[in-house]
Amino acid sequence: VQLQASGGGLVQAGGSLRLSCAASGGTFSMYTMGWFRQAPGKERESVAAVHWSGRTPYADSVKGRFTISRDNAKKTVYLQMNNLKPEDTAVYYCAARWYKNDEYDYWGQGTLVTVSS
């Protein structure tokens, strides 16, 4: 499975961005898809995931502001980010995990999101 993330950019605080992650190969619908982020000097953290079952857990810091969704026909996962804050600035990565696995198997290249105050 190869993952290609896109949609990052520079936005002012309070603005919105939508990230996309297109997958190729594999049976996309059977993968849990996740978005992670890593800010400068910080460890990578989970932002949101959409399970093959449809379940969508979110990090507390983004609940109510971010929405993850998937389109299995297009083999794409999205992250709609609203009311962005400067602390959301990070490189965002998408990842795929086979539904039986505990760890993510495949990672995209990352897309930079910068939120200015």
Q: What is the strand content? A: over 45%
Structural class: mainly beta
Whole-angstrom Rg: 13 Å
Count of DSSP-assigned helices: 0
Q: How confident overall, as mean pLDDT? A: 96
Number of strands: 10
Q: Helix and strand string, N-terminal first?
A: EEEEEEEEEE
Determine the fraction of residues in helical runs and give it as a percent range.
under 10%
Query: Which segments are poorly predicted (pLDDT under 50) over 5 or more consecutive residues?
Result: none
Q: Quote the distance from N terminus to C terminus.
A: 37 Å
Rough outline = globular
For the biggest sheet, the summary is: 6 strands, mixed
Structure write-up:
This protein has strands at residues 2-6, 9-12, 17-24, 31-38, 45-50, 66-71, 76-81, 90-98, 106-107, 111-116. The termini are far apart. With 117 residues, it is mainly beta. The model has no long low-confidence stretch (mean pLDDT 96). Strand 8 (90-98) and strand 9 (106-107) form a beta hairpin.
Reconstruct the topology from this structure.
Blueprint: E1 2-6, E2 9-12, E3 17-24, E4 31-38, E5 45-50, E6 66-71, E7 76-81, E8 90-98, E9 106-107, E10 111-116
Parallel strand pairs: 2-10
Antiparallel strand pairs: 1-3, 3-7, 4-5, 4-8, 6-7, 8-9, 8-10
